[in-house]
Amino acid sequence: MTDIITGALISGLDAVIEYLAAHTVTCLVPAFFIAGAIAAFVKKDAILKYFSPDAKKSVSYGIASISGIVLAVCSCTILPMFAGIMKKGSGIGPAIAFLYAGPAINILAIIYTATVLGVDIGIARAVFAVVMAIAIGLIMATLFKEHDKGARSAAAQVAGMTTGGEERPRWVNPAFFVMMVLVLVIGASPLDIVLRLAVVYLLTLAIAILLIYFYERDEVTEWGYEVWDLVKKIFPILIGGTFVVGVIAFFLPPETFQPFFGTNSIGSVFLGAVIGAILYMPTLLEVPIIGGTFGYTQGLMAGGPALALLLAGPTISLPSILVLTRIMGAKKTAAYVALVIIFSTAAGLVYGTFFG
């Protein structure tokens, strides 16, 4: 009994160590800084212009649904950005579309999926991810209209308020955020480590120059406070949730479910979506897990369950569900998770029937 408990604890600790090694420097740190910068530097009317409840749906959902193309993030790394957008008064629909699309359609994952698992499933993943982001966002906006009423009220209260740095040239903020995103994307890319470090160093130097010459000291201080506020709220839950997932994996390794993924039946596809919603899979890692652990490349896993897992796995996980509950409440989180599972199942059934 002691050996079992020890093994489970070691499994949990290993999961945490692997998570920290894979994400802390290249993904989480840049993501927290980007989220803090959104809260500190971006004017509320800039966010409301595109993501507010009253913004044109074709614009807000269009931008949100393709946001992941430039963000190499997973279900946990997107959370600080989502929290920052919600804090600035985004409508629930566009914010949810952004939350789903961020991990679901990043360009690295799509290319890697097409290369390892096949072009057909790679294209299917990209197309269904965009459609699902928009559909889930629209449904959430319909279900939780009271959130958007609150967002409108908050916007009215701060109307006319100004923030520091109005005298900055208009190109400064866009350049600042582009470079911040590039640090995140390049830092998490599979490029040679020396090249990555060199590019990230140059980008960081350019960001520092912008901060020194174009931003007030109080603004930079506020940025630091916003980053710390997000870190202390989110990071402990991420670590705890990852540990729990590691312990669960000790008792129920993924291989346990392989016999259930061999067909495109509704049960197999639904199970793939549910397993994807529970397991924590860092971006890109879902591809070798599905291809190797679940046996897709060996023909042991059907296409329907594979796509369902691809669509649900990178976007939600047990750790991210815990954090989302804290950010937007249990009711909204439960609805979001249910919609991801339902739409992932439907997409898997369509793909499995016609292509899988």
From TrEMBL:
Annotated compartments: Cell membrane
Keyword Transmembrane helix: yes
Keywords: Cell membrane, Membrane, Transmembrane, Transmembrane helix
Topological type in the membrane: Multi-pass membrane protein
Residues passing through the membrane, by range: 20-42, 63-85, 97-119, 126-144, 171-188, 195-214, 234-253, 260-280, 300-324, 336-354
InterPro entries (UniProt xref): DUF318
Primary residence: membrane
One Gene Ontology cellular component annotation held by this UniProt entry: plasma membrane
Family membership noted in the UniProt record: Belongs to the UPF0718 family.
PANTHER family per record: UPF0718 PROTEIN YRAQ
Record's protein name: Permease
Organism, scientific name: Methanogenium organophilum
